């Protein structure tokens, strides 16, 4: 794994577990056994690191969703798999985009735009799956917002409680749609 990839992996884990304040170049460097100048080489400013984290998180989430397309029928099953995929990948940590949204006062406008774009794209994906289930456009729009909010809220609560109980409740709810 390249130094840049190691930095991203550790920074993402720190962000998901401890929040934005944990992204100290000095502390990341110490944990990796490198100099902080090595981190600055790859990410001149903290904002560069944050923007890369959200971009890579987006690629990971939507890459996983893309893999479903050829094997899973659109609709309820894909929505359940979305929740399962998020649960497995985060292991009782918070969503990268969710952390950044919660701490939006601390990030740049460019980073905020990337976070907004992630959530808009995910909500559009959820809406398309609900439409495939026969929901009206209006109902699909409303439910996509509710489901995305439920996923993000359950991740926060499950991280706090150190178990995936609430995320499992979201999955059970989706199965009733």
From TrEMBL:
Keyword presence, DNA-binding: yes
DNA-binding region: 24-43
InterPro entries: Homeodomain-like_sf, HTH_TetR, Tet_transcr_reg_TetR-rel_C_sf, YxaF_TetR_C
Any GO MF annotation of the entry: DNA binding
Cited PROSITE patterns: HTH_TETR_2
Gene3D superfamilies from the UniProt entry: Tetracycline Repressor, domain 2 (1.10.357.10)
Domain HTH tetR-type: 1-61
Record carries keyword DNA-binding: yes
Annotated keywords: DNA-binding, Transcription, Transcription regulation
Pfam families assigned to the protein according to its UniProt record, in alphabetical order: TetR_C_13_2, TetR_N
Name of this chain's protein: Transcriptional regulator, TetR family
